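Continuing from the previous page of notes. For each protein in this section, the sequence appears first, followed by its structure tokens. Read the first protein now.
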Amino acid sequence: MPHSLVEPAGSRLIASLTTNPTHQEWLEQALQLALHNRQQGGRPFAALLVRDNQLVTSAVNGMHQDGDPTRHAELEALRQASQVGPLAGAIVYASGHPCPMCLSALVMNGIAAVYYAFDNEDAAPFGFDSTAAYQKLGLPLAPPPLPLIKLPSPLAAAELYGAPDHA
């Protein structure tokens, strides 16, 4: 069953993809969306939800729009894609490692795997890691609840996240 692309305001693909994109190409699209979102005043996060190597939806972190702390890119992608069809078996490509809230939603909806560019260690100098939340909740990531696969990023963390947080 083909899925249509769902694109709400604030999330768009920067460049068209090849016929059969690789995991790396999908991830690079997510990174471009995240970078664009940061350049537009948002947080530097984006996610693509892909099924059968076809884009179902793309989303960016929308917390800055209305102050809703649940408007993480992965949750926005899940919300949008659920309007199109079942989510089980889909793959998510995210600019960063999912936080506990997003990871729980991904697991609960049967997402097959998450490919991401930056982990908590990469994001920590910029104030964007979720290590403390994982620790407070007592959620170990070993073994991961679904495949969490870090791929190389063509961007440095500072290019995406901005200046390090020196608080």
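Done with the first. The second protein uses the same format. Note its length before scrolling.
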Amino acid sequence: MEGPFIRIEDSGEVIALRPEITTIGRGRGVDIRLTDPSVSRLHAEFVRRGPYLYVVDLGLSRNGTRVNGRPIARRVLDDGDVVSFGAARARVGGIPREDFTPEVELRRAAAPELTRREADVLASLCRPALSDEAFVAPATAREIADDLVVTEAAVKQHLLRLYQKFRIPEGTNRRTRLANEVVALGLVRPTPVVPTQRATDPAHHSPTTSSRRAS
């Protein structure tokens, strides 16, 4: 088989990875579907950049992603690495061998400068997913508009600028890819679990945005 591929350990199935991004999870809309209940609906992505392949944990699953047993956020892969999505495991193959240290996590790009309103839009975009362990879908433009009490047209303009700032290419699942990148950069974080007696305090249920936001 030409190019990178994964071999699912339970079934032995060999699946070629797409030229750029391959999504993996338990949901119906992913490129590689795993049925293990420990896998989130949209769990992780394999990303190809030239001769390199890396895996990105989407950061919103309680069970996480591991490479050779170590939990990761974003990690360059080497031929033969074993990637675990929850309890499901797959071995990576077809990666050209280079003088490259696989133990090094791929460094994340610096987050772009954001206006206060752009930071609010990002927080609202990710809010539906952050209250659950499975990343189902980010908020729609209409839902963001209702949340922030602004027009849907204004939200769409903010989203267009955010796509440009985060270099999210045109195509399907653009809002989802933006949300994934925002969470990976730590600009919006999952809501921490709090004791039951404090559950009525709304301050413990809203996602937090990074102090990097600009006024």
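What the second structure shows: The mean pLDDT is 79. The longest strand covers residues 44-49. We return to this in next week's lecture.
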